[in-house]
């Protein structure tokens, strides 16, 4: 069968693109080797981050570098083979991380973030997924007076961009989460207009189901080869071959595997994270996700239990799991909450798809007609999936596009 558009990758990004296209009268096939929302969009911290107006630059200050180098941190770790493999992308990442460059990047990034909750809301309402969403924000916990003060200044600035917050002292924090032990903390920022999802994979699945209800097609196939000829696109998978006029690559951290054979080589690199769930009891019940700002991990109430998610580990995609970072995080987390019974025997691991300039690639490919890229959303792909879906639909259907897409074009790395 011939489709108007094939979208490869049914994470939050690809599913949202397929949804928008199908809703706007395209005949879409969404392809993934697994069920929708089974990879990175399964294992994240489940935050729809309206407050995420800042990016994650490479550490450039000497004190920061000295802190990261011994490779014992809870927020960031690295493995040498990954440094060697991605050294060019990392060098670019370093260059893009000067204060002046970050300022410009963040002003472009913010044009996406400002629409994240409203774009999710459209899809949540259409999919009837409201029961997965909590809209009373999340808590950014601080252990040091210095980072707490900096965060307060930054939060006041963020008000200009529609980001709402409250500053909480320890007493107010305790009142919000009475089961938690906040010994060693000095206070928190309560981000008010960010949302929490109780099962990230289920939200992607709800969007995918709604896409099917609109007559969209989903197939569980592993894409092996992509070919363009005079007829259009031919997508060869482990099970079948599919044909379309237009093609979108939204395969998250695997996107380069699919586009390299077509002659593209974008500096995409993975940043791994781990999670493990712990059974909820009367003693550890929490109502908000809590991010330990100074140690870089999240504890969030999920359907499966309390999900502990780590910061980033710079490693290659297929490297074996290394639980060192998670083990250190768990020791800290267990001081905050009694976490006795792990739900899974082995922790989950997945990779954030990152670009050196901290912005996703959203736009047409330059060497082929009717080919679009949408990947590299790094730490906020779950937040930005629906916004990306809207933008890709507008581009493909030649409509006016909500934001200027020049800062996100694939061609920005051509030179
Ligand atoms: C620990 C952790 C915590 C995070 N927390 C948050 C958070 O709170 N909020 C937030 O906004 N973001 C968060 N993120 C980031 C977010 O999860 C990612 O940016 C986002 O999920 C990326 O979505 P995606 O659709 O691009 O990729 P994915 O969800 O990885 O989807 C890509 C899909 O492509 C498919 N695929 C790949 N190759 C092929 C092939 N050859 N054939 C067929 N299918 C293929 C895969 O099977 C996969 O389903 C977190 C990430 C991690 C790791």
UniProtKB/TrEMBL annotation:
> Listed GO molecular functions?
oxidoreductase activity
Using the record's annotation, list all stretches that form the FAD dependent oxidoreductase domain: 5-394
InterPro entries reported for this sequence = FAD-dep_OxRdtase, FAD/NAD-bd_sf
What superkingdom does the record give? Bacteria
EC code: 1.4.99.1
Keyword presence, Oxidoreductase: yes
| UniProt KW keywords | Oxidoreductase
Q: Its GO CC terms? A: cytoplasm
Gene3D superfamilies, per the entry: D-Amino Acid Oxidase, subunit A, domain 2, FAD/NAD(P)-binding domain
Signal sequence range: none
Fetch the PANTHER family from UniProt: GLYCINE OXIDASE, SARCOSINE DEHYDROGENASE-RELATED
Name of the molecule in the record:
D-amino acid dehydrogenase small subunit
Recall the taxonomic lineage recorded for the source organism. Answer: Bacteria, Pseudomonadati, Pseudomonadota, Gammaproteobacteria, Moraxellales
């Amino acid at each position: 069968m011939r489709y108007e558009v094939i979208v490869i990758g049914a994470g939050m990004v690809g599913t949202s693109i397929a949804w928008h296209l199908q809703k706007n009268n395209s005949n879409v096939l969404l392809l993934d080797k697994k069920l929708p929302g089974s990879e990175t969009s399964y294992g994240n911290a489940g935050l729809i981050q309206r407050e995420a107006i800042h990016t994650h630059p490479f550490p450039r200050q000497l004190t920061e570098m000295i802190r990261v180098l011994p490779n014992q941190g809870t927020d960031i770790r690295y493995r040498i083979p990954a440094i060697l493999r991605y050294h060019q992308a990392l060098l670019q990442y370093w260059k893009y991380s000067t204060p002046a460059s970050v300022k410009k990047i963040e002003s472009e990034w913010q044009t996406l973030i400002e629409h994240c909750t409203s774009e999710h809301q459209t899809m949540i309402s259409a999919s009837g997924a409201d029961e997965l969403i909590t809209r009373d924000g999340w808590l950014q916990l601080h252990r040091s007076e210095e980072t707490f003060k900096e965060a307060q200044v930054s939060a006041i600035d963020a008000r200009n961009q529609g980001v709402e917050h409250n500053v909480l002292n320890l007493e107010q924090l305790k009142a919000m989460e009475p089961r938690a032990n906040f010994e060693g903390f000095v206070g928190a920022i309560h981000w008010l207009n960010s949302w929490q999802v109780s099962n990230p994979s289920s939200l992607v699945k709800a969007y995918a189901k709604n896409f099917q209800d609109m007559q969209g097609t989903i197939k569980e196939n592993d894409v092996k080869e992509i070919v363009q000829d005079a007829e259009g696109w031919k997508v060869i998978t482990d099970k079948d071959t599919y044909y379309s006029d237009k093609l979108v690559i939204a395969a998250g951290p695997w996107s380069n595997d699919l586009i390299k054979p077509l002659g593209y080589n974008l500096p995409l690199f993975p940043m791994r994270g781990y999670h493990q769930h712990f059974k909820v009891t009367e003693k550890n019940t929490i109502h908000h996700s809590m991010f330990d700002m100074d140690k870089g991990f999240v504890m969030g109430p999920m359907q499966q239990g309390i999900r502990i998610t780590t910061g980033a580990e710079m490693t290659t995609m297929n490297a074996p799991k290394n639980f060192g970072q998670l083990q250190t995080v768990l020791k800290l987390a267990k001081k905050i909450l009694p976490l006795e019974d792990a739900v899974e025997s082995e922790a989950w691991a997945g990779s954030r798809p990152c670009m050196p300039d901290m912005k996703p690639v959203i736009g047409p490919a330059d060497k082929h007609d009717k080919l679009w890229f949408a990947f590299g959303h790094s730490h906020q792909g779950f937040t930005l999936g629906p916004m990306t879906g809207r933008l890709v639909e507008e581009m493909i259907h030649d409509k006016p596009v909500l934001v200027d897409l020049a800062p996100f074009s694939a061609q920005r790395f051509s030179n």
